[in-house]
Amino acid sequence: DGDMKKRWIILIFAFVLVVALCITLLAVTAYNGYSLTVGKVYITNDSIYLIDDDDMATVIYDSTVGQRLSKKYNNGDRILLVHGAIDTSYPAYTDGYFTLRLKRGDGSYKPEDSILGVVSLDDEAETNLDFTAEYIRTGSYIEGNVYPIVETVSSYDELNEYYESNKELYYLERRDKRYEDITVGFIDACDSYTDEFFEKKSLIFVILEEPSGSIRHKVDYVKRNGAGMNIDIDPIVPEAGTDDMALWHIIISVDKNELPENEESIRIFYDGKEMPREYFAFSFTWGCYGVSSYDSETGLLIKEKNATYPHKYTTNLMLTEEQLNEISELIDELDIKSYSDRYDPHNGKLHSSPSMTLVLSVKTEDYYKSVTAEDIALGFDECSNQKGRKFLSVCKRIQQIITESEEWKALPDYEFHYS
After folding, report:
1. What Rg value do the Cα atoms of the chain yield, rounded?
2. Which of 137, 246, 319, 354 could form a disulfide with 213 if both were Cys (CB 3.0 to 4.6 A apart)?
């Protein structure tokens, strides 16, 4: 009887201890903003997932002592995980700090791809497509347009409708007389696009704007990518070019059954970089007396406008979608509309010689705004007021993005150094 009583005491003590530990764990996790989740572990070469009882998958960053998750657990182990806040961006993820194994798995557990949000590799495989391309110069600068513009045409009637809708906007007529630097006319190119043609083929119009009429193009490839399509266009840039702006219709024909259902799923790559199609554009001028400038609408990048041979300091730069998104977010946070058109971030309290010029302009679907800061102190960081520091900080980051590009680095050193 005495031994039995001791065993019961030990069991009760153990139970109380476990309950106390659980209460303590709950209190500590709640106090520190942690949470508890029970689920199955699934480990791949790239990620560790926790699949909860509702089949929700969360990527776990293994912050446990000694990286216990990746080293001690097998696929299918049922665990209790103490973790931080779950970021619900796709895919959801969180930091895992402590684990308790509730049940062992046999290592064979694998959730369905739909749970993990994995798309079949077969669906995403890129397939090279047969195509032909024609390159038609169709005008010059049009205020307010953002490029690339992508249009699809699948019938002779749609082609006529496109012509009637756009003939006042672009130059779409015939060219009876051709010069060395002028292509055939749009209508000339379309003579072969008959009803018979559209029985098997469709057209994709990619409309681009170039800072020089001397720039030509070559479609490098057209690929199906899942339900979408990737088109890569290489610019052909001469050593010396004209300074006239030019619009181009690149007309690409593909098999009718290869045309994506949605024009938005056609992604355009220019010189290997994806061209964003959001309605956001900016221009930025910087440096002593504003010698350097960039325009995201045209891609025109000028390192030194006052150089003896300016064309040597001029190139084309198309920022990536990620870079444009970052700049757009910076300008949104800046609230550029709250700044005066002519602005001194130093409020006249700081001067230097030579001085710096900054001009930041932005065009969106809703507004156009330009802020000019001329003859201001050179330093980005020597500013005593918060609004001025914010403006200078955004300008500094935009300049950094531009000057870290390979296109900028390929330009020669400044010809003149101002003092």
Report:
1. 30
2. 246
DSSP state of 243: -
Pairing of strands 35-43, 78-83: antiparallel
Rounded Cα distance between 167 and 286, Å, is 38
**pLDDT band at 92, cuts 50/70/90?**
confident
Q: Give tens-digit pLDDT for 205-255.
A: 999 999 888 899 999 999 988 778 999 999 998 887 777 889 999 999 999
Instruction: Give residues with Cβ within 8 angstroms of 300, minimum separation 6.
Output: 211, 293, 294, 314, 316
* Residue 314 bridge partners (DSSP): 302
One-letter identity of residue 396? K
Gap between the Cα atoms of 39 and 48, Å rounded: 12
Q: Tokens 């699948």 appear where? A: 154
d(CA 337, CA 380): 21
CB contact set of 24 (below 8 Å; sequence gap of 6+): none
Instruction: Give tens-digit pLDDT for 280-323.
Output: 889 999 988 789 999 988 889 999 988 888 888 999 998 887 89
Burial 6-21 (b: 16+ CB within 10 A, else e): eeeeeeeeeeeeeeee
Distances (CA, A) of 186 to 173, 192, 244, 247, 371: 6, 11, 20, 12, 40
The CA–CA distances, whole Å, from 270 to 46, 159, 326 equal 31, 25, 19
Give the whole-angstrom CA distance, residue 400 versus residue 380.
12
- Pairwise CA distance, residues 83 & 39, whole Å: 12
Q: Does residue 85 carry a pLDDT above 80? A: no
Per-residue pLDDT of 321-350, as tens digits, reads 789 889 998 998 888 988 989 998 887 777
* Tokens standing for residue 367: 């507004």
Residue position matching structure tokens 């909860």: 52
Cβ contact 53:39 at 8 Å: yes
- Three-state DSSP class for 70? helix
Query: What tens digit of pLDDT does each residue of 359-417 get?
Result: 999 987 667 899 999 888 766 566 667 888 889 999 999 999 999 999 999 999 988 76
Per-state percent for the chain, helix, strand, coil, to nearest 5: 25, 30, 40
Q: Which of 139, 217, 216, 213 is nearest to 172 (CA)?
A: 139
Phi (first) and psi of residue 82, to 5 degrees: -95, 125
